Amino acid sequence: MEAFITHTGIGAPLRRSNVDTDQIIPAEYLKRITRHGYEDALFKAWRDDESFVLNHPIYKTATVLVAGPEFGTGSSREHAVWALMDYGFKVVISPRFADIFRGNSGKGGLLTAQVTDEVTEQLWAYLEADPGAKITVDLPSQQITAGEIVASFEIDPYVKWRLLEGLDDIGITMQQLDQIDTFEQNRASWRPKTTA
Amino acid sequence: MAKTLSEKVWDAHVVAEGEGNSPDLLYVDLHLVHEVTSPQAFDGLRTAGRKVRRPDLTVATEDHNVPTLNIDKPIADPISRAQVEALRKNCDEFGVPRYSLGHAEQGIVHVVGPQTGLTQPGMTIVCGDSHTSTHGAFGALAFGIGTSEVEHVLATQTLPLKKFKTMAVTVNNKLPDGVTAKDLILTIIAKIGTGGGQGYVLEYRGEAVRNLSMEGRMTMCNMSIEGGARAGMIAPDETTFAYIEGRDRAPKGKDWEKALEYWRTLPTDDGATFDHEVILDAATLSPFVTWGTNPGQGVPLSAAVPDPAQFSDPVERTAAERALQYMDLQPGTKLKDVFVDTVFLGSCTNGRIEDLRAAAEIIKGKKLANNLKMIVVPGSARVRLQAEAEGLDQVFLGAGAEWRSAGCSMCLGMNPDKLSRGERAASTSNRNFEGRQGPGGRTHLVSPQVAAATAILGHLAEPKDLGM
Ligand code: SF4
């Protein structure tokens, strides 16, 4: 996974709450067996509507998404993270993220920056007043800068560390194989098995 | 120290405690796999040259995009077929047992675990599917994970995780006649909101919960995720043990005694504290239905579509306006005056035998309303067989409904079972998101009983409206 330190890019204002993962990527795209190539599937149903924010040409190269609360609720599909990243997004800013989505983002290297409702509102106003304006998201200082706006964001300290280091979870766990072996030796023998 | 149910299960599975900000490393007792969220995970293993650590604690089923008609023929949609074939190939290559189409245990992953007896109290259970919370009905700590985590569990049988916070949802008194577990959980979600459970594992307790059957408990735990919670749990009791005893994978003989002894230690200790508590009075509940496009947007079936102007929270107000537009509903319209085109009975929320029985009892001897389509999709091949043995298929067919093979079907419309644009459905599934059951489709979430009454009357209705 690529390390994340600091990023500056065009911010796209998505004035919606409860953006569930079915909206981020509809089920029909989940039939694929690859990890990439989902950029066209992102917000598919909404993109059929011309006035949808990402259809504005200026947001073709947007990398920071600013969305309303309860972002990423619903299905656990990691395809939602892949679709956002394939489109080019590096950061999603929202007042609240669904747990599974936030976890998936951390694994894939997409930064989920949690801010207050007021900051979200300010960022929307800033981006809408000046379409194509940029936002800087700095992970070490947990700070967002956009024009005059300077705000801090929240992120789980462990996820932050992993993103900064670009570490992959399986690699970390593989260093604890001895402990897994020990745990297994002490497991009750009556626990069910899936094989005969 | 007094502990809650979820804390006990957690503590019993810590392989390595996290230091400082690091998560604990948690052991996984059972990993359920399906075709949609696993191909990229198996690919990852292959690329890294890794094996599945415990194929004997892993099992796969085909559910999300399998057809529910002509299942003896090759899957017609080439992309769905490729995905199902990838699962079979991956399982065979890595030694993971699988229940493929045609197998009696094939079905929706959250119906399969309990019916085989693999789902047991005190276990940690994961699956690349958010409704894994279903298994919490047995007093297991069960939750959905993403594909990267699926790969992690396949490779290590563990997951790095931070402890969830705990919330008690206490439902006092008895549910009135005709009010089901589905109505109860929809009411809870409307109360706490779609984000209310964020970061929590919910423990459902109280008289109304204790009185529920295992099927009802599964319906409740299933929809915990719709309230934002990662998991829902119910302490195991005699109802739980009676359900498990004798099932294929249940402990037998001496092992059964040992297991029982352990399971009885699991319920939350007196004096244990929760981070948060919500209390409801079951006696005040009635059949419940959603009017909007998230599962928190619901009201009693006897009520009217709310007026967005009445919402004090501006975010909720905008969401309600959008939802009513999408749903093509006017504020003030009585929900019982809302006519539907399709009724879907099925899914991991309400596709078990008890759900089919409840609906069949209402439908028996009647005909579907004019121009209304009803599809009945059992949660698993075993449920289908059982229903047929009881003659339920004839009840549905006799009324004019379609009787299908097992799978997720119209719950998410990945297979050919979809709503068309503008079509309105009463659905026993769990998500009413825009386009969830097909692009442009409109969903009202209901219980099997309400689904059945609606199928007969043509508009949203409860059995009472049929004089039952
Ligand atoms: S029935 Fe619906 S909610 Fe349940 S696992 Fe299948 S798609 Fe998911």
Automatic annotation (TrEMBL), chain A:
Domain Aconitase A/isopropylmalate dehydratase small subunit swivel: 1-116
Reaction(s) the record says it catalyses: (2R,3S)-3-isopropylmalate = (2S)-2-isopropylmalate
Keywords carried by this UniProt record: Amino-acid biosynthesis, Branched-chain amino acid biosynthesis, Leucine biosynthesis, Lyase
UniProt keyword annotation of Cytoplasm present: no
Pfam families hit by this protein: Aconitase_C (PF00694)
InterPro entries in UniProt: 3-IsopropMal_deHydase_ssu (IPR004431), Aconitase/3IPM_dehydase_swvl (IPR015928), AconitaseA/IPMdHydase_ssu_swvl (IPR000573), IPMI_Swivel (IPR033940), LeuD (IPR050075)
Pathway(s) annotated for this protein in UniProt: Amino-acid biosynthesis; L-leucine biosynthesis; L-leucine from 3-methyl-2-oxobutanoate: step 2/4
GO BP terms in the entry: L-leucine biosynthetic process
EC category name: lyase
Entry protein name: 3-isopropylmalate dehydratase
Organism annotation: freshwater metagenome
Automatic annotation (TrEMBL), chain B:
InterPro entries: 3-IsopropMal_deHydase_lsu (IPR004430), Acnase/IPM_dHydase_lsu_aba_1/3 (IPR015931), Acoase/IPM_deHydtase_lsu_aba (IPR001030), Aconitase_4Fe-4S_BS (IPR018136), Aconitase_4Fe-4S_dom (IPR036008), IPM_dehydratase_rel_enz (IPR050067), IPMI_cat (IPR033941)
Keywords tagged on the record: 4Fe-4S, Amino-acid biosynthesis, Branched-chain amino acid biosynthesis, Iron, Iron-sulfur, Leucine biosynthesis, Lyase, Metal-binding
Pathway entry: Amino-acid biosynthesis; L-leucine biosynthesis; L-leucine from 3-methyl-2-oxobutanoate: step 2/4
Keyword Transferase: no
GO molecular function ontology, one term from the record: 4 iron, 4 sulfur cluster binding
EC number(s) reported in the record: 4.2.1.33
Chain positions covered by the region annotation Disordered: 419-443
Aconitase/3-isopropylmalate dehydratase large subunit alpha/beta/alpha domain mapped to chain residues: 7-458
Cofactor: [4Fe-4S] cluster
Catalysis performed (reactions): (2R,3S)-3-isopropylmalate = (2S)-2-isopropylmalate
One of the protein's GO biological processes: L-leucine biosynthetic process
Family affiliation: Belongs to the aconitase/IPM isomerase family.
Family annotation (NCBIfam families): leuC, PRK05478.1, PRK12466.1
Record function comment: Catalyzes the isomerization between 2-isopropylmalate and 3-isopropylmalate, via the formation of 2-isopropylmaleate.
Name of the protein: 3-isopropylmalate dehydratase
